[in-house]
Structure formats: structure tokens, C-alpha cells
Amino acid sequence: MTLLRLLASVACFLVLASCSNLPFIGGDSENADTDQATGTSIQVSDATQSDVSVQSANGSFFGVFGGSQAQKTGLVVGDEPFAVKAGASVLAQGGSAVDAATAMYFALSATYPVAASLGGGGICMVHDGASGRNETFDFLARNAAGGGDYAVPGNVRGFALMQSVYGQLPWQRDVSPGEGLAATGFPISRALHARLLQSADVIRLDAGLAAEFLDESGQVKPVNTIVYNRELAASLTAIRLNGPDGLYKGEAAQKLVRYAAAEGGALSAAELAAYRAGRSNSHAIQMGNEMAYLPPTRLGAGTFAASLLSRLVNNNGVVNADVAATATAAATKTTLAQFGITSLPRDLGATGFAATDTNGQAVSCAVTMNGPFGSGHTATGTGVTFAKSPASGQAGLSAAFLTPVIATSGGQVSLAGAGAGGPNGTAAIAYTLVRLARGEDVTKPGDLRSTGDAPYDTVNVITCQNGTCAALPDPGAMGLGAAGIAH
Hints:
Blueprint: H1 3-8, E1 42-45, E2 53-55, E3 61-64, H2 67-70, E4 73-78, H3 81-92, H4 97-111, H5 113-116, E5 121-127, E6 134-139, H6 155-166, H7 171-184, E7 186-187, H8 190-198, H9 200-204, H10 207-213, E8 226-227, H11 230-242, H12 245-248, H13 250-262, H14 269-274, E9 278-281, E10 283-287, E11 290-294, H15 300-310, H16 324-338, E12 350-356, E13 362-368, E14 378-379, E15 384-385, E16 403-409, E17 412-420, H17 423-437, E18 458-465, E19 468-472, E20 480-485
């Protein structure tokens, strides 16, 4: 679906605030999580010696990788620290970048369900170092054929397809970290807590969410409180054992259909079983010596990102921007006006993350619930919170601002990252690409600009320049960059 068709499904738009400074309000490094419940930079390793690296207090991981050690190090980055650690652990076990991204997603379904429930959808980009192929996997949540507020979920199908093509570890190993977090519990991170506070009214209306995240007085539980979701754990067990059919068919699917019907939805068992993710070539745009790969323009996300970037380069791929920040902000405003977007909800319920591995594979993903906790309804007995139907309101525009991107230079990955949550995230990715295209350094924490509205819109990237690789979370949010070091 193109962005224009997507926009046409939305009934009205209000006034978008602060367009003039969309992507570039400075971040607060003091808000970065610590290594305990709230995450600092970490190395996850089963080797006896660590690589030459510097770990930053703001949650990023960066270092100079050379020689044999470079062959042992992959990087991961994202908005929620426990999920990032799960991805780093999978890398340390010899997993590919896609294995790490898959593990991060399933961990996020437990630790960051405001944006990544099993009921949501998204888009991933993959660069395969062996073949040089650049592909997009799209698995956005879809409108149910019979209408209603509950979307047909896409995430599990999408990550299963991607992992079947590019994974190196057994599927079970990628799912199990999230399953364990849901079953045995995890401390509420500062990243999650910030989203919970803003979504308290949504949480109070759903028994499952309220039981997990609210205390006896109806207030959001404090940071570091241990929470768990054993119904979600059971669903993840079924997915681990049976693949995506563990959600889209059988007992779990029946529970989803029954709950939707009881709440006035129109989800059917047939359309659940029939859901398939898409796989296609990515859309390429030359930017200086960089080749930027975006979602295809048949998707709203690809249309918006391509339109924005086309305003920053000429037909020969030469960057037009003398001042990257000013030019990107202006291009973003013009692109929003092109599509008639004058306002969006502050929180579109989205998150982005990325991973690279030692074989030259890179993946960037962005997922959304079309609003914080999506529909705000969790199917009894499943732990699955339904995404909001894309046609049910402004939040359905969230998918147009999922901006997973991979950039290469000389055939090598120079950037893998994602903006998510709104046009600020897309703009922050565009700004980073412009700086790369101009040959500027983007490997230190201060080189990445905050979206200005973190944690609702965020940008998380991995960059590699001149032998230095960095995992840089949004400096205004509370995410984490980490290295996974294998034997």
C-alpha cells in the first residue's frame, strides 16, 4: 500500500507541533540506562579476552576492531536494554545478525510490549555479506477482513520467514530468551517505565496489562520492579516448539479469534492461518559514496523515506545539504506537507533496532502496534495484545514512519539502523545518512542526534567507518548498544 493510499484511510489530521525542530533537539545522556535494570554499554562474551573497545556512559558501544578480534565481534542496538542483551547473547553463541534481531524482537515482546507485542507488525531490512543481496521483509499488521479495531498480527510470521532464510542458529534458540523473560520475570527498565507512565490510562482498561504493570493502587510500578507474563510465556513456548503456527493456528489462534469476537472484532481463524509476510528487493538511493537501502516504495514507509531523501540529493546522488541539520529539517517539513500530514499522536507505539555480525550480515528492523499497546486489549489466555487496526485512526500512520535502513560503501556495511515512532525518527536517520555521505564521522555517541521526542520517536544505529564500528542508541532515550563476542 502506498503512503497516499495509507493517508487516505485516515479520517482527519490535526496540527503537528514543533515541525521546525523535528529531529535535532539534544539528548540527555544522564537518562541512559545502567547495566543493571537500566543498562550501560556491555560486552556479552564467552571468550576469555575482550576486544579493544571503549564503553560509553550514555548506553552506546564503540571500539576499534582489527585483526582476528574483528572476526569475533558483532553489534546490537535498540530501545530496551534487556532485549538488546538478549541479542548480544545470541551473537556470542555464534548467531547471525538476523538471529540476534529475532531474539531481540521476541525479548521485546516481553520487555517492551507497548511497541512490540506478538500482536503487532513491522518491516526489516537485511544485507547479506556473502551475496551482497539487500532485501526487505514486510509483515505489517493488517485490517481484519470483517473490520473492527483488532489487526491481524504480522510480527511472528515476518521474523520466522527472515530467520528461516538468514538465521544460523535453531529457531528455538532465538525465541527462548523472550520466553524466559516472560516466564521468570524481568525488572522494569527505565526505557519501558517512560512508556508505561504515558500509557497508564490504556493499561488500566485491560486486565492483563493492569495485572502486570500496575500496583494495587492502580499506579505504574516503579523502575526495577520484577514483572512477568506467564500467559505470554506459554504463547512463546508454543511458537518456539511449533514455529509461527504456534500463534497463527491451533489453540492460540482460537483464543485470539474468540476474544476478538467477544469484544466486537471480526478476526477470523482463516485469515490468521493465511497471513504471509512479504519478501522483496529493497529500494536503493545513491548518496555520495554511500548506497542507502530503504523499504520498497510499494510500502508507505518506503514512499515517505524515499521522498524525504530525494530532497537531500540530486539525480546523480550528490548531497545537496550544506548544513545537514537545517537541510534535513526543511526536507522533512516539505515531505510532511506533500502528503498532507499536519498532526500525529505523540506516541505511535513503535520501536527500532539493528544488528551486525562477523560475516558481513546486517539487519535493521522497526515494529509498531499502531499506538501505545495498540488496541489496548489483550486476548485472554495468550498474553497477546492486539495492534490497532491500521484503518482505525491516526495511529494507523505509524507504519509510514518505520524507517529501517542499511547503507553500504564499497560493498561493506557502513550503517544499519532504524528510525521509528514518527517523522522525527525518519528525519534522524536521514540526517545520519547525509553526514555519512559527506564523509563526516558518525562513530561516537555525540555524532548521533536525538530525535527530540524520545522515547516516542527514536533512532538507533550501528555505523562502521575507517575500521571503527559503533552501536549508538538515541542519545535522548534510554536504550543500549552492545557487542556480542563469540569464540
